[in-house]
Amino acid sequence: MTKKQKKVRNRIIVVLVMFFALLILDKTGIMQPVPRFVQFAIYLVPYVIIGYDVIRKAAINISHGQVFDENFLMMIATFGAFGIGEYSEALAVMLFYQVGELFQAVAVGKSRQSISDMMSIAPDFANVIAEDGSVNEVDPEEVSIGDILLIRAGEKIPVDGVVTEGESYLDTAALTGESVPRRAVEGDNVISGCINGEGLLKIRAEKAYEDSTVARILELVENASNKKSRMENFITRFARYYTPVVTIGAVLLAILPPLFGYMAFADSIKRACIFLIVSCPCALVISVPLGFFGGIGASSKIGVLVKGSNFLEAASKITTVVFDKTGTLTKGEFRVTDVVPSKNSTVNKDELLKLAAAGESLSNHPIAKSILAAYTEANGNATFEELDGSQTKEIAGRGISTVYGGKELLLGNTKLLEDKKITYEASDKAGTIVYVAYDGKYAGCVVISDVIKEGAADAISRMKKAGVKKAVMLTGDRKAAAEYVAGQIGIDEVHSELLPADKVGEVEKLLLKSDNNNKLAFVGDGINDAPVLMRADVGIAMGSLGSDAAIEAADIVIMDDDVRKISSVVKIARKTIRIVKENIVFALAVKLAILILGALGLTTMWLAVFGDVGVAVIAILNSMRALKYKD
Predict the structure, then answer these.
(1) Is the separation of the CB atoms in 332 and 452 below 8 Å?
(2) Do both 470 and 555 map to the same domain?
(3) Tell me, what CATH number does 469's domain have?
(4) Is the dihedral of CA 508, 512, 516, 522 positive or negative?
(5) Under DSSP, is residue 544 helix (H, G, I), strand (E, B) or coil?
(6) Interval 85-102: pLDDT, tens
(7) Which ranges of 380-455 would DSSP assign to H, the alpha helix?
(8) Do 341 and 311 lie in a common domain?
(9) Longest dimension (CA), the chain
C-alpha cells in the first residue's frame, strides 16, 4: 500500500469502529431517547471523517463543469439519506463506498506492478570513461555515440552498444521474461536495460539514449493506456450518458410520486437515494480498463510488449497467423545438412566436404562460412596447403572457380557446371545446393539449409490448440526449401519465392477472406517485414532484443524471439476479453435488478450498497484474474 492508501485504511478502521458502536446503540434502543438533531450531529462526525474527500472532489468537479460522476452520486445519495433521517444508512453508504475505492486502488496498484517492473529497467546513470582514463558518472541522456562506458557488476547498461572489453553474463529478465542470463563477450551487441551480472564490461555507445531500446520500450509502455479497446471506449461513452440519465430518473422518482399522491416524500426520496447509489458506474468504469491492464501486465511478465488494449482485443480474435520464414521460424543461420557424393565418383563424403571447404575457404559469403564451419567441426582445422589461392575467382551468378592439387575445382549452381559442359546429378534436396566438380568431373553436392528454430513446431501446435485455425508462411526462399520447413513444423499454407512487395499482396488476399470477428496476425523480424507488419490486423514482431523496426512497426513485440509466446498472447487476450464481458454482464444485470426493485420500493439501502460497492469489488476481483497466467 502507498502512504495515501494507508491513511484511507486507517480512516476506514476508525469509522468502522464508530459505525458498529452507533449501530449497536441504535438497535438496542439506547439512541431512541436522544433528540434527532443530536443524533444527526453524532452521525455527522464519522460521516465527515470518512467522506470529506468525496464531497471535496464532487464540489471541485462541479465547479469545473463535471457534474455527473461517482463522487456527485455518493454526495447526493447520502445527503438525501440524512435529509429523511436515515443516518446509519447514510454513514454506511459513504463508509462502504470508501472501502470499495480503497480495494480498487490496491487492485490497480497490483495490476500496475508488472508494468512497473518493466518501467524499472530505466538506467539511473552512465559511467563514461574519459580520454585520461578517469570515470565520470553522467545522466544517460548525456551519453554521446562513440563514448566508452564502464559497466560494473550489478549496474544497468544505459544505452545500446558493443562490448569492447571484458566478459560477463547479462540479466535480461525485465526485458524478455527469460531468467537464464545471456553471455556477452568482446564484439557482442548489448542493449540498454540489461543488468551486468558479474565482472567489468566496457562498451562503446552505438545509440543515443532516446534512440536506445530502453527509452523506446518505456515510451511504448507509457503510451499503451492511450490506445483504448473498443470495449473501453464503449464503457466510457456509456458512463457519459448513463449517469445523467439515472440522476434525472432519481429526481423524477423523488418528485413525481408525491405530487400525484402515490406516496410520501420521505419514501420517494429514500427510493431515489437507493436509485442513485446503485446507479454509480464504478464497477464498469474501473473493472473493464483494469481487466485490460491486467492482460497487458500478464503479457509483460512473459516478455511480450503489447502496445495497447486495442491490440490485445484484436489478438483475442486471431484465427490466421502468417509467418515470415527467415529469422522468425528459422534462425537465419546456414548449416550443412547433407553431403551427397556422386554415384559415379570415387570421392567419399569426407573428401567431398574437404573439396568444398577448400574452394570456399577464401570467401566471406554465409554459405561459404557454413561449409568451412562444418569441415572445421569435423576435422579440427581448416588448412588447405594444396589450394592455389591466386587462381581463385568468383563467377557472378554461378559460383567459384579455383585450383586445388593442380586440378580445377568448381563450386556453384547448375549453371556453372552447364557452362563447363560437366554432366551432373540434379538434387531435389531441400535447401541451397552447392554442386562440386573436380578435375572436369562431377564429384557431388553439399546441401546447406537454414536452421529451424527450436520450439517452432511446438509453437504452431500450441497456436492450433489456442484456437488459431490456419498457419501460413511467406518467404523469398526456393519452393523446395520453404515446403521442407513447412512440413517439419506443421504450416498449413506456403507461398515461396516472394519479393517484399509480394508479401503485402499475399496478406491483402488473406485479409479479404477474413471478417471483423476473425483477425489476421503477421509475425516477422520487424526489419524487412515492416510494411506487412503494419498492414496486418495484428503485427507481431520478433524483438531481436532491440530491433528498431520491430518496436516501431509492430503492435505486439516478443522481446526474446520465442515464437511459442504467440499462443500465450492469444490465450491471455481471450481470457482478458472473457473476464471483461463477464464484468459487464454481471454489473449491468445486478444494477438493473436493484434499480427496478428500488424504484418499486422492494429493497433497502443496504442492498443498494451491495449493488454499488459489492458489485464493484466482485468485478475488480474478477479483473485481477487477468494478471495471472499459467502456460
Answers:
(1) no
(2) yes
(3) 3.40.50.1000
(4) negative
(5) coil
(6) 888 888 888 888 888 778
(7) 414-419
(8) no
(9) 122
Same domain, residue pair 187 and 95: no
Report the residue count for the chain.
631
Residue 350: which domain range?
331-451
Neighbours of 461 (CB within 10 A): 16
pLDDT tens-digit series, residues 465-499: 999 999 999 987 778 778 888 999 999 999 988 87
Judgement on whether residues 464 and 553 belong to the same structural domain of the protein: yes
Distances in Å between the Cα of 367 and the Cα atoms of 172, 333, 349, 416, 453 are 31, 9, 18, 17, 18
Structural domain ending residue among the three candidates 451, 474, 501: 451
Structural domains in the chain (count): 4
**Can you tell me the distance from the alpha carbon of 48 to that of 482, in angstroms, rounded to the nearest whole number?**
72
Pairing outcome for strands 201-205 and 161-166: antiparallel
Return the pLDDT at 492.
Answer: 94
Set 160, 171, 324, 555: catalytic member: 324
DSSP H helical ranges for 491-540 = 500-513, 530-535
Rg (CA), the chain: 34
Told to judge if 324 belongs to the known catalytic residues of this protein, a careful annotator would answer yes
CA gap 147, 131 in Å, rounded: 10
Decide: pTM greater than 0.85.
no
Co-location of 339 and 321 in the same domain: no
427 grid coordinates: 538434387
Pair 396, 411: CB distance under 8 Å: no
Q: What is d(CA 510, CA 520) in angstroms, rounded to the nearest whole number?
A: 8
